[in-house]
Every structure is written in structure tokens, then in C-alpha cells.
Amino acid sequence: MKALVYHGPGARAWEEVPDPAITAPTDIVMRVDAVTICGTDLHILKGDVPEVVPGTILGHEACGTVVETGSSVSTLREGDRVLASCITSCGRCAACREGRYGLCTGGGGWILGHLIDGVQAEYARIPFGDTSAYRIPATLTDEQVLFLADIMPTAYEVGVIAGRLRPGDAVAVVGAGPIGLAAVLSAELYTPRKVIVLDPDQGRVDRALAHGASDGITDTGAAARDRVLALTDGRGVDLAIEAVGAPETFELCTDIVRPGGHVANVGVHGKPATLHLERLWIKGVTITTGLVDTSTTPTLMRLIEARKLDPSVFATHRFALSEAMDAYDAFADAKTSGAFKVVLEGAAHEQLVAVGAGGGAQART
Fold this sequence. Notes:
alpha/beta; six-stranded parallel sheet; 15 strands
């Protein structure tokens, strides 16, 4: 088969690799029908994630069709359409029993495209298939559920749920990239009175306004803080969601949250950020961080099925899976290409569409 392989900082290739095989009785192998690229993949290519060794297949967000199951897999069978979660869960360790799959100590956590081969390939092995892959309802398309693999549950769990958003609250989302927009969509589920989006990119702010944000701010620093305070009667927001992963955006969140409010850090930070305890200690502010667990994936899938949520709005560019190199170029140069999220469709996509969303498995070639 062919796959997108990491060969060290700045080096990637779409090349021939061995087919994946069942290596444990809990594994499944799936044909990849749709996959996307994450900002984390770009960090890996920059050399920011040294745990990823050269020769690793990238990717941790995909939909596919089961073509083989291990002897212990009991809830999935060949022909099932599934969503492969970015987080793998053994289902047995103490963390998994608490629903904290991102902290799995039994061989799971974030491993796809990180510690083991990922899903930007024609076929992929998914460990712990029963607890790490979700059957896709026949009424839903791959593109409708693809973004449940990572960005939607990340924003929902690490931003909205951890931030304890309540109906009628005012929330600020700092950063209007894919995670920021996912935070806007997630926050809307709780009927906040205001969703204020802050991003210096007017195009991204406009996108957020079109999908539920009440106010958009392109100012930065003190000017951004002053505008948020003006929109909240000088009090600040109940919840500030950091969706960038930069020192200045984290500090802005602590400046715009009200006394007794909550800062939910979702962005992945590569540099230290200053925690101004000299100002925060008296405000009673709660700050939370964390890796997504994807425990809410079934809930989010039901909301999509009920037409209460539509993550397909993230997709702006589509490529054939064999065009993975071009897709990376477009995603990495979003200012030129306008790419927000890209969808790469497997070779069987057209056939699946033709026979309906519940199409059966195809043989591997």
C-alpha cells in the first residue's frame, strides 16, 4: 500500500510501505476512506515532536471500513464503517475506567501517527478496536463525522466542559482556527449569551461569526482586552478558551476573564507562558489544561445524527488520498491556499457514495 511517511524534520513522502497486519487480538485493520491533516502533523514535520521517529506513517484522524479483526474483537466486524479516534483506549487501566482515555496507561493515549504508524495511508491498524473505533451510523457521511476524530471533542471536552460553561454565560474564544471554530460550535450547545471570538485574521473571524459567534475582534493585546471588557460591562467573560498555544494568547485569556471565572487552555504550547499570580490570586480564577479523552465522541455523533451539530463546515479543500503531498502543501500554506481543514478521500470513496453510506467492505489490493 501507499502512505504519507515522515522522514525527519522537513521531510515527508507518499510512498510504498508494507500493508498493516493484526499484531494483537484486540486490533482491527481498516481501509481508509477519508482522512484529514492536523496542525500537530505540521509540528511533527518541523521536528517539534521528537518522539516521532523517521519512518512513521503520519495521521490520527480518519474514517474507514473494517477489513480484518483480531480474535478478541467483539463489537466490530468486517464491512463496518468506523471513525478511528485520535485517542486509543485500552479500556482496562485506571484512567480508562474513569473515562480519561487520553491518560491511558495500558498502551493507549495519543499513539496513532505519534508512537505507532498512523492513518494517512490506504490501510491502517487500529489497536484496541472495540474501545478506540466508533461505528458510523448509516445515515451519516464520512465527512460529517471525520472531525469527531480530534478537533470537535477536543474543543468540547477541554474547552467547554472543563471550562464549566453554563447557559447565559459570556465566553471568549481566543484563536479562530479549526479548534477555535470547534469551540464556537461546542459553546453554542449551551446557549451562551455571548460568544466573542478574537483573532487577527479577519477571514477567520468572519467564518466564526457566520457559524454562531456574536462578536469578532481582530485587535490584539491591550486593545483586545479593552474591547472584551466593553462588551461585558467591564466585568470580563465567564469563560476564556485559549485555542492558539502561545504565551501572549494565554496571558490575554487571564486578562479578560471575570473574577471567579474560568480559563480553559486548549492550545498546545511550545514555549513557557507567564502566570501572573500577582494579579490572579485575588480573582479566584480557575485555570484548566488537558489532552482530549474523546469520551464524548458518541454524544457528538448523536448530535450530528439529530442535525444539532454540523462539523462538515470545517472542510474547505478536498483531495484524493494519493494527492497527500499536495494536500500538505495547501494546509501548511493556508494564507495562500485559503485552506481551513482538508479532506483526503480514499480510492473507494466514489464507490461508497454510489452504493450509499452503508456500503460494504471492499477487498484489499
